[in-house]
Amino acid sequence: MRLVAASPRRYPLTPTQLRRRVLVALGIGAGAAASMRARWPDDDVLAVAAALGLRVEEREYDEGVVGSGGAGASELTNPPRRRLAALEDGNRIVVCRSAPSIVARAMVELLRARGEEAARRPHDWTALEHDWTALALALLVAHELFHHLEQGVARLEQGVASAGWQHAPGGRVSVRLGYPSRFLGLRYRAAIPELSEVAAHAFSSCLVPSPVCSLAVHARLMGWI
């Protein structure tokens, strides 16, 4: 909820209206993941991305995967003005080279805070890193895979559409769950981009089995928890 409530695009919606939209966005992401898993029940997310014609590439931060960091986040977990992954040109997922390790560390920190034995043993991070970075990479790829579907690149006949949701250029969650507005006398539907992010987090958490949900990892990286 905090992710959307902090958006400058949320005005003039009330907290109740925002909460309802967040719940719908979560349902859209979960529904899309269920449909995806029904189509590819045994494949990991990298194999699914390849089946949809997506390339997954690694890139250093200074090579152009630019975004914004979160206020209060540490330099380790959220380098300023950088994104951990991005969808480029509709058919390429770019993951920053150190992103899986950054996300994995955040996951382990969250599990340790909950007292999870899997994160507390062993205490040496280097012994944990190999096991968690692969999971972190899968979550990052799944998140961007949702945006690929959302932008209408995947075809309905590939069996990845959730019931009632058309993966078409006009089908972005941010627009569908936006609100009617007016500019210079012209009516349009104002988008709330953060709702697409909520749906993508739900999608990745449901598609990739993980002891830590993607939204919690995002909150940790933003310095919120």
Tell me briefly what this model is:
The protein is mainly alpha-helical and 225 residues long.
Describe this structure in words.
The strands form 2 sheets. This protein has a 3-stranded mixed sheet, with helices on one face. A two-stranded antiparallel ribbon has the order 4-5. It contains 9 helices and 5 strands. It has helices at 2-5, 15-39, 45-51, 99-113, 117-120, 125-150, 173-176, 193-207, 214-221; strands at residues 55-59, 85-88, 92-96, 179-183, 186-190. The chain has one domain. With 225 residues, it is mainly α. It is globular.
Topology, element by element:
Elements: H1 2-5, H2 15-39, H3 45-51, E1 55-59, E2 85-88, E3 92-96, H4 99-113, H5 117-120, H6 125-150, H7 173-176, E4 179-183, E5 186-190, H8 193-207, H9 214-221
Parallel strand pairs: 1-3
Antiparallel strand pairs: 2-3, 4-5
Helix pairs in contact: 2-8, 4-6, 4-9, 6-8
Q: Which tags fit this structure?
A:
225 residues; mainly alpha; 3-stranded mixed β-sheet; two-stranded antiparallel sheet; 9 helices; 5 strands
Low-pLDDT residue intervals, each spanning 5 or more residues: 63-81, 153-170
The fraction of residues in strands falls at 5-15%
- Which strands sit side by side, in order, in the main sheet? 1-3-2
Distance between the termini: 13 Å
> What is the mean predicted local confidence, pLDDT?
75
Instruction: Work out the count of structural domains.
Output: 1
Order of helices and strands: HHHEEEHHHHEEHH
Decide which structural class fits the backbone. mainly alpha
Helix content: 40-55%
Number of extended strands:
5
Rg over CA atoms, rounded to whole Å, is 18 Å
Task: Profile the largest sheet.
Answer: 3 strands, mixed
User: What's the shape?
Assistant: globular
Separate helix tally: 9
